[in-house]
Structures are given as structure tokens and as C-alpha cells.
Amino acid sequence: MNPKKRIAIVGSFSTGKTTLAEAAAPKLGLPLLPEVAREIVDLGFKLDKDATVEVETLIFLRQYHNEMTHPEFVGDRSLVDVMAYASWVLENQDRRKEFALWETCLGIAKHHLRSQYSHVFYLPVEFEIVPDGLRPMDPDFQADIDRRMVHLLGDLEKGVNVPHLGRFAATAYLASIGMSPDEIMALFAKAKDFRADLTRYQVEHITGKTSGTKYTPPNCATMLTYGLCCQRVKEVECRDHGRDGRCQEAWLKHPLSYYRSKIRAEKKKSDSKTRSRAPAENAQKSVEPDESREP
Ligand code: SF4
Predict the structure, then answer these.
(1) How far does CA 17 lie from the centroid of its chain?
(2) Could you give the CA distance from residue 289 to residue 21 in angstroms, rounded to a whole number?
(3) Residue 252 Cα, ligand 1 centroid: separation in angstroms?
(4) Residue nearest to ligand 1 atom 6, measured at CA
């Protein structure tokens, strides 16, 4: 793991990255790397669906330069974000010789990306798009960029230590089923690389204590992409979660649905046990007065 704090906050547009980055940087005492795309718009270039491969190359180089000239930082976006947008542009435009510019950037990314960040925080799409004068009011495009981002992160995760995505999912899941930040902290405290200050900051942010937003855990499809689902990847043995076959059912799309379904089934089982025990207990009760009347 990179010992320096090189923190990337990634995700599609309008997911709260700037808010989180601006809050985290001063708390952690790290410089904030602002979103490069804003500088590019100020220079008069168009973004997103109207961007060209030259613009994507310029954004990549500026982002790369910013990250290389800061030993530590909190980044409002990252090279992963730049690559997600660029992949959309490349797929939706006819190939020109200038595409070679971008292919050179990809070569740099392949070489450096894995060691570039110490922590990567992914923010999923959870809110309606807030107009910022920069990004389009287009939920389909927002979702498309999100999918590309998740895919890139999945690739990245295969080669890098990105347990933070797992921690995000675990924290959001545990909070959603009613555990307090302190209870969640106590669970993480058992991990070898536990750091109380950083973990408390992450847990309190994700559970909404300091951010005002209680994050929901990722759905099963996203968990699978991260390599975090232990039931739909056959080689990985899961200790107990899902041995009942729920995870193989098409209706199961979210870990919280698994939890609720399991709770309902357990309740039904205990209710029916109580009902079947009731006649015997009544019979027992009806005997007791007779016994007490014995001389
Ligand atoms: S609930 Fe089951 S299918 Fe969904 S992520 Fe968890 S283990 Fe995988």
C-alpha cells in the first residue's frame, strides 16, 4: 500500500464528490486537488458528449501533472474519472489519427495507475442531478459514466489494495441494519491495518453522522463487480451468508433484501414454534391448580 496519503474521490457527476473532497482535505490536513474539467471549460473547451479526444488528453495530462506534483492530496476526481469519460468519447466518435494522443495517455495510466492512490473512495449515483453549469442534466449519461467507473475500479482492484470499497459497502450495510458508528468501529478494530482516526472519519461520514447523508450499500451487481460478492463467484467460499440459496435467486438484487428476507423467515419460524408450543403449555397450566389442591 502507498504509505503517502494520495486520496482519490471518484464517481459519476452529481454524486457529492466535491462536497466530500472539500470537507475531507482540511480535516486530514491535505491539499485539495480541484476538478480539472472546470479549468478546461474556463479555457473555452467543451466537455462530456461534446468533448474531443484532444480535450480528453488535455484533461488527463493536467490531472496527471497535478497528482505527480503533489506527494499527498485529496483529489476531487482522479485519472480513473478521466478514463471513464474518455472511454465514452472514444466509443462514440469516428476514429482519427489524433486518437494516438489518447492511446499514449492510456500507456501512462497502465504504468502508473496501480501505485497512484493510497485510498480510492467511490461515490455511487444516489441523488438527482444538481445543475452546476458544467455537466449535462442527463441521468442516462450519468448512469453510463457510473458503469464505466465501476468497471475501471473493478480492474484496478484486481491489482491494487482497494479494501476501502469493501469497507464502504460493509459500513453502509451495517448502518442500514441498525448498527451504531461505535459498534461498526468495534468490528473494524479487529482488522490488522486498523487506524482509529481514519476509520472513525470514514464511518461517521458514511453513516451520516458528520455528512448528513446516510449512504446505502451497493447492490449485488456492484458488489459482484468489486469482487465483494461471495455467493455469485463460485470459487470463493462464504462462511454462512447465502447458504440457504437466496443468493442464487433472480429476485435478489440487494444485500439488504437478503437481510430482510432472512429476518422475515426467521420470524415466521419462531412464530410457528410458539404456536405449536402453546397447546402443550396450556395443558401444563391446567394441571398445575389440581396439583396445588393435593393434600
Ligand atoms: S446478498 Fe448474496 S448475492 Fe448479494 S452481494 Fe451479498 S452474497 Fe452476493
Answers:
(1) 12
(2) 72
(3) 8
(4) 255
